[in-house]
Write a structure and sequence with these properties.
Immunoglobulin-like, Glutaredoxin, about 40% helix
Length: about 375
């Protein structure tokens, strides 16, 4: 009897030692009212491309996506195939339940449980609700002022909007600083990076938890920081060659030294803020071109006809180049440009002396430098 018990004990040990632990995986259960027979597609963005992860069809108000795994918690999209509806949330290796209605798939209306990172994201979004409400009111106020042609009021509201944006940015920066171990932090930092200099991005990265610092978003940001350092104020502007509107190759270096100041202006015909800024650049060019200021326009357009038409419509009478590769523009990548309008002001030696000067700031900067050079 004792021998039998001993053998059973040994068998139990062997079984315990040879059982393979279940690999980490995720499941998504969707309880979406009003969505019977609707297929939902789970997808993510990788290197600027949308990648399908899985899909499932709603039956009796419910669907389930089983299996699969993610290396790190990451933002994904759940898109209703035949409806104009979708939802973004953080996916991780756990059981996630999404409850809501097909007509209101947004973070405020849908309940998502099971994901710790998603819960952190929801808490962050909730802190911004008061600012979003203010922003909505400001936008409505701006539309009224715009319809009435009240430029003074419009300028006043734009200042309010800018202050509100700065307040939101400050909140996000504080969140990133105080949550170095959150897998939501890389996504927020990536969004912030559009407005930050290389040294500030690097300072945020350096305090991240070791595991969080391994996620692809942070690896990409590190590469971006390295490029940004090569186009920081004080650095020589990297040379590049692109074709002009007549398909003639023009090198940046061929323009350097021919004027006291040269503005490399990244823009596109499809970019609303760029088109809004163009009159300001035209104003500076007209006033200071004969005094030593010039512009080298670099377009992120895809269609040549749109690019050429915008040049004519906006009366941009300086040299323009483009490879018509959209965000894959070789020059944009070389200068770490991931939002436009963007610009780099060079002196006669090709040294970058200022970046992203717009509106009155550009006018005042050019005037200040040319006045100083004249003395």
């Amino acid at each position: 009897m004792k021998k039998l018990i001993y053998l059973l004990f040994i068998a139990a040990i062997v079984t315990a030692c040879t059982t393979t632990p279940k690999a980490p995986h995720f499941t998504i259960t969707g309880k979406i009212a009003g969505a019977d027979s609707v297929t939902f597609i789970l997808q993510k963005r990788v290197d600027g491309k949308t990648i399908k992860i899985d899909s499932a069809t709603v039956l009796k108000g419910e669907f389930k996506i089983n299996g699969g795994s993610v290396e790190y918690p990451a933002m994904v999209s759940l898109i209703a195939k035949t409806k104009r509806a979708g939802l973004q949330f953080f996916l991780e290796n756990t059981d996630i339940v999404i409850t809501g209605h097909i007509d209101s798939l947004n973070i405020d209306k849908v309940k998502i449980t099971g994901s710790k990172t998603q819960a952190e994201y929801k808490a962050y979004v909730d802190t911004l609700k008061p600012l979003n409400a203010k922003n909505k009111a400001i936008n409505e106020e701006y539309q009224v002022a715009s319809a009435a042609g009240n430029k003074a009021k419009m300028a006043e509201i734009e200042k309010k909007s800018e202050d509100l944006y700065n307040e939101q940015t400050a909140i996000t920066k504080q969140y990133v600083k105080s949550h170095p171990a959150s897998y939501m932090t890389p996504t927020l930092l990536a969004n912030l990076s559009y407005e930050l200099e290389a040294t500030e991005i690097e300072s945020f990265i350096n305090v991240l938890d070791t595991n969080v610092a391994k996620v692809p978003i942070i690896k990409d940001l590190k590469k971006r920081v390295a490029i940004m350092k090569t186009v920081a104020v004080g650095q020589k502007a990297p040379d590049f060659t692109l074709s002009d509107v007549n398909d003639k190759p023009v090198a940046l270096s061929s323009k350097i030294g021919k004027s006291k100041l040269l503005l490399i202006d990244f823009w596109a015909s499809w970019c609303g803020p760029c088109r809004k800024e163009n009159p300001n650049v035209v104003k500076v060019w007209k006033e200071f071109n004969k005094k030593g200021f010039d512009v080298f326009g670099v377009s992120l357009d895809q269609k040549k006809e749109d690019w050429v038409k915008a040049i004519a419509d906006d009366k941009l009478t300086w040299t323009h180049v483009s490879d018509l590769q959209y965000w894959s523009s070789a020059a944009a990548k070389l200068y770490a440009v991931n939002s436009i309008p963007a610009n780099f002001l060079l002196d006669e030696t090709g040294t970058i002396i200022a970046k992203n000067q717009r509106g009155d700031d550009l006018y005042n900067k050019v005037k200040e430098i040319l006045t100083a050079k004249k003395k």
